[in-house]
Amino acid sequence: MTGASFLDSLTKRLTGEEPAPLVPKESAGVAVIFRDLGDGEEVLLIRRAEREGDPWSGQVAFPGGMVNAMDGSFEETARREASEEVGIDLSSKAAAFLGYMCELKAKTRDVLVVPSVFKLAAPATVTLNREVASYEWVPVGSLARKEARSTHVLRRKGAEVAFPSIVHNGMVIWGLTERILSVIIQDRAEGDDRLLGEIGRY
Predict the structure, then answer these.
(1) Of 13, 65, 74, 130, most Cβ neighbours within 10 A?
(2) What is the reported pLDDT for 3?
(3) For residue 179, with 0-12 CB atoms within 10 Å meaning exposed, 13-18 middle and 19 or more buried, which class applies?
(4) Domains of the chain: which residue ranges?
(5) What angle do CA 38, 44, 49 make, to 5 degrees?
(6) What are the helix and strand counts (H, E) for the chain?
(7) Is residue 34 within a helix (H) or strand (E), and if so which, with residue range?
(8) What are the Cα distances from residue 135, in Å, to 41, 46, 82, 91, 131?
(9) SS3 (DSSP) at 110
(10) Neighbouring C-beta atoms of residue 153, cutoff 10 Å
(11) Cα separation of 74 and 58, whole Å?
């Protein structure tokens, strides 16, 4: 991307207002965490552990989870989940909260998901809990390459269903995570506006 950085471009379109009602067991928050160590922006992606009953088992994702009754905002949900899953402190001393992206509907469990965007103020140590199998700091520029775009095919109810995907070092990113990343890496404003306002594509 030329001119403004990916994060600069995204930040202009974020909001500080809660984009959706905060409903325990019906809504969820994820933490989109950026860092820049001088070689360009990187975003933290995790691979969820294989767990029976988890509809996102084994998938590439952002740290996150369901809103609980103690959370006062989606920002709080994202901070709590990041601390629990990857051991990263997203308090105001350790990271800047830049705002919310638009809510997205996850039809897998009919859950409304709100991404909260953060930028780390300093390098952070990642400590995984049992819900996370692995993690990687991925250069956003690599995800934005046309060559990274692909299609992920799943077999559902006897039929093959194709989903847009991004592939990085063998990591296949699809579903909600692909949708969120697509907002971040879009070059054209009309593409950004379409994606930011899109809910329930699948």
Answers:
(1) 74
(2) 53
(3) buried
(4) 6-141
(5) 150
(6) 5, 11
(7) strand 27-36
(8) 16, 4, 12, 21, 12
(9) coil
(10) 11
(11) 24
Encoded tokens for 15: 């909001």
What is the homologous superfamily of the domain 6-141 according to CATH? Nucleoside Triphosphate Pyrophosphohydrolase (3.90.79.10)
pLDDT per residue rounded down to tens, the chain (202 residues) = 445 789 999 999 999 999 999 999 899 999 999 999 988 999 999 999 998 767 678 999 999 999 999 999 999 999 999 999 999 999 999 999 999 999 999 866 789 999 999 999 999 999 999 999 999 999 999 999 999 999 999 877 778 889 999 999 999 999 999 999 999 998 433 344 444 444 333 3
CB 120 within 8 A of CB 93: no
How many C-beta atoms lie closer than 10 Å to residue 155's C-beta?
8
**If we measure between CA atoms, which residue out of 12, 111, 14, 3 comes closest to residue 65?**
111
Where do the H-state alpha helices sit in the chain? 6-11, 74-86, 140-143, 175-185, 189-196
